[in-house]
Amino acid sequence: MEEKGTLYFLCGKMGAGKSTKAKQLATEKQAVLLSEDEWLSTLYPNQIHTFEDYRKHATLLKPLLESHVKQLLKLGMNVVMDFPANTKSSRAWFLKLAQDVGADHCLVYLNRSDEQCLRQIQKRRIMEPERAAFDTEEVFHHVTSFFEVPDCAEQLYIIEI
Questions:
Q1: Which CATH architecture has domain 6-160?
Q2: Mean per-residue pLDDT, 127-156
């Protein structure tokens, strides 16, 4: 029986450090890193200006990535998806990707306070000025209103940091 890869995905509020942790995980696990930000900016340059624009285009990515991720997992490759798994429905999609091919999964939950996230967002605005329009306290609070803390009822293997 061939060994399948493991699917790693991350949960945490905006500014919690999901992208940083995803890069670290990809190195540690010798995994393929798939970044939502990279895919969106490449496929939809200059088309995402609001949170609704983001949601629309992020939804368009899922069918494109689904077969790709499953194939990588079937081949025994570990995959780190730097895509927010911040709602029950989004986490269910990640879990289904792994289950469909009999692969293991791991949700990394970055449990950070609003204050910690807002401090990080402020730093990011300075270090990455191109993100300043989207990385605001107002956007943080709007995005956070959709956030759902993961729980054991979701049948996920969770590592909380």
A1: 3-Layer(aba) Sandwich (3.40)
A2: 84
Residues forming a β-bridge with 143: none
Q: Do residues 152 and 100 touch, judged by C-beta distance below 8 A? A: no
Q: What is the DSSP string of 63-123?
A: HHHHHHHHHHHHTT--EEEEEE--SHHHHHHHHHHHHHTT-EEEEEE----HHHHHHHHHH
End-to-end CA distance of the chain: 33
Residue 142: C-alpha distances to residues 29, 65, 76, 78, 130 (Å): 33, 26, 38, 33, 20
Domain ranges for the chain: 6-160
**pTM value > 0.85:** yes
